[in-house]
From TrEMBL:
InterPro entries: AB_hydrolase_fold (IPR029058), Dienelactn_hydro (IPR002925). Pfam families: DLH (PF01738). PANTHER family: DIENELACTONE HYDROLASE, ENDO-1,3-1,4-BETA-D-GLUCANASE-LIKE PROTEIN. One of its GO terms (molecular function) is hydrolase activity. It comes from Eucalyptus grandis. Residues 29-158 form the Dienelactone hydrolase domain. This is Dienelactone hydrolase domain-containing protein.
Amino acid sequence: MLSSQCFENPPNLSSTCGAGRVEELAGLKTYVTGPSDSKRALLFIPDAFGYEAPKLRKLADKVASAGFFVVVPDFYYGDPVIDVNDPNFNIEVWLKNHSPDKGYEDAKPVIAALKSKGVSAIGVAGFCWGGMVLVKLAGTEDIQAAVILHPGRITEDEIRGKAMPVNMEFLLIFISTIAT
């Protein structure tokens, strides 16, 4: 569940941070980093602050340094959470406009675009809202590894019964990369 802690220390969003670049992928502005010819890719699905969060891009760059092609799409179409203290901001309305179901539908063409570039192994990392999207992707055979770094509104019933195919080598490389 969302709590007040989710928004206590929001990032200062920056369209220019990171070692990568922004390009269009599957119709979405996407931060990309790492070797574009890699056969292994990671799709980062961000929290409500979106793809311009500097620490998220720093993590993407770090994982990319291990040889992964990392993509962080703008699933919010330029409408991330910017100021939760704005009296006109309503998180429930924002979540309705940016539902995990919509995120799931937007993620499928991103995965297809990665495969069309020759990527043979795709892992997905979901952060809060992105974790809610990831749970939906984990029920497919489109990805080989999944990790929820901090969950959003996810219930046990949503996770239970997911037949997530896991490529342990892929997951262990990812975990060792972020742990160092």
